[in-house]
């Protein structure tokens, strides 16, 4: 089995990827590159996380990088600010889904923990996965932050994840926490989310220098 694992430079997603890898999945890491809303340090963290997971799982993991920052800029320019985080996650999941279709993957994996941030409320999760064909696995969904941090420390990814890097400047001051599917789809249409997904897939690249 194969899983497309959405991987950030944070604490949660490397742990989720590891747990799914331990279940027997071949994991394919997909990092959404937030530049200019982040910087090159995020890519260096992804390289180190990939090395660590390769060692832990005793098989080389694949890593793909997809452009995301310029697409966030489109969302910021055209859409309701409160829906930025919801649209951002919708976009990530749809790119993961499209890549998964190309690579014959069986699932998408995220590091979401219920209610931890605005995009991870039950209402928003339901909206964000709309239109995604692959099942979305969330191995950390019921864990709290301390439990996830302890798992990260035990597998050796915690120190990588907490290395200093700019926080995402895309997050609005008042993100919606009870997203409406109708409203989200209207906002997605304003940004031409499907067109953005197709462009991102065309520009995706494999990271092999780790």
Present the secondary structure layout.
Layout: E1 2-6, H1 12-22, E2 26-33, H2 41-57, E3 62-67, H3 69-78, H4 84-102, E4 107-109, H5 122-128, E5 136-137, H6 145-155, H7 158-161, H8 181-191, H9 193-203, E6 205-206
Parallel strand pairs: 1-2, 1-4, 2-3, 4-5
Antiparallel strand pairs: 3-6
Helix pairs in contact: 1-2, 1-6, 4-5, 4-9
What is the mean pLDDT?
92
Approximately how much beta-strand content do the residues carry? 5-15%
Distance between the termini: 23 Å
CATH topology: Rossmann fold
Structural class: alpha/beta
- Count every beta strand, where a strand is a DSSP E run of 2 or more residues: 6
Summarize the structure.
The protein is an alpha/beta fold and 210 residues long. It is 48% helix and 12% strand.
What does this protein structure show overall?
This protein has 210 residues and is α/β, with parallel strands linked by helices. The chain has a single domain, classed as HUPs (Rossmann fold, 3-Layer(aba) Sandwich). The chain is built from nine helices and six strands. Helix 4 (84-102) crosses helix 5 (122-128). It starts with a strand and ends with a strand.
């Amino acid at each position: 089995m194969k899983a497309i694992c959405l991987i950030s430079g944070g604490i949660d997603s490397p742990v989720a990827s590891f747990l799914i890898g331990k279940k027997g999945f071949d994991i394919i890491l997909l990092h959404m590159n937030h530049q200019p809303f982040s910087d090159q340090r995020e890519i260096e963290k992804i390289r180190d996380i990939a090395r660590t997971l390769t060692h832990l799982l005793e098989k080389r993991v694949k890593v793909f990088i997809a452009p995301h920052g310029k697409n966030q800029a489109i969302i910021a320019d055209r859409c309701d600010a409160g829906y930025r985080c919801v649209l951002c996650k919708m976009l990530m999941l749809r790119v993961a889904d499209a890549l998964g279709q190309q690579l014959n993957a069986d699932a998408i994996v995220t590091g979401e923990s219920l209610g931890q941030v605005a995009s991870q409320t039950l209402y928003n999760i339901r909206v964000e996965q709309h239109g995604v064909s692959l099942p979305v696995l969330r191995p950390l969904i019921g864990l709290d932050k301390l439990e996830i941090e302890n798992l990260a420390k035990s597998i050796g990814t915690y120190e990588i994840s907490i290395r200093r890097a700019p926080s995402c400047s895309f997050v609005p001051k008042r993100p919606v926490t009870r997203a409406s599917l109708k409203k989200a789809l209207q906002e997605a249409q304003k940004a031409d989310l499907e067109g953005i997904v197709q462009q991102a897939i065309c520009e995706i690249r494999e990271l092999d220098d780790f």
